[in-house]
């Protein structure tokens, strides 16, 4: 009787903590879906990524060649960027992206943050895409644009900022 209950406990433990039933079982992988969308009708790419496939592929090339984004053993740069852009373009959750790309939530999150790092370059030795592409016309911020200056919704914040900035420089 005692061995029966201990084997029952062992079986319960095994099924609860060790046995992992596959969840992502769709035959269409994320890479296959990406190839289908990028090589299919041009509207599919616009619907999924809010850009044409040639623009998407150029973005992938830029992030890989100039901003340090690398393919891994199991995921290409194109799929990583696809995960990132799909998430932002459609505003979908990690679970939805996991289902679309047939990857775990952890893998989706890791890929998303790798692309985000390539764009922002907060901790790498690369210049991020954002720093290269988004540059203020006046890097010293000496002039406030007329659109802000003449709008009462924004100007109070810039008055404080300009005072702080002038104080900080002196």
From TrEMBL:
This chain's protein is named: DUF8040 domain-containing protein
Short name of any one Pfam family annotated for the protein? DUF8040
Q: Which residues form the DUF8040 domain?
A: 25-120
Superkingdom of the source species? Eukaryota
User: Which InterPro entries does this one have?
Assistant: DUF8040, HARBI1-like
